[in-house]
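I hope you will forgive my troubling you with a question about protein structure. The matter concerns a single protein, recorded as an amino acid sequence and a row of backbone structure tokens. Please examine both parts with care and let me know of anything in them that strikes you as inconsistent. Thank you for your consideration; the sequence and its tokens are set out here:
***
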Amino acid sequence: MKAKLNHDKPEKLEAKRIAEIKSLSYVERLERLMAIIELSYTLKNAPKIYSLKK
């Protein structure tokens, strides 16, 4: 499968994204929100690879 890149004006991309989200059911929206929250929590609590102190 070939990768599809979004090359368009930000306003058009935002409109497409909003239309896509509006087409989802309530449960699908909730699942996406929960995935974002889980990812955010995981990244926040992940061990730091690079230390700023040397």
Remarks:
- The mean pLDDT is 86.
- The chain is about 65% helix and 0% strand.
- The longest helix spans residues 26-45.
- The two ends are 44 Å apart (CA to CA).
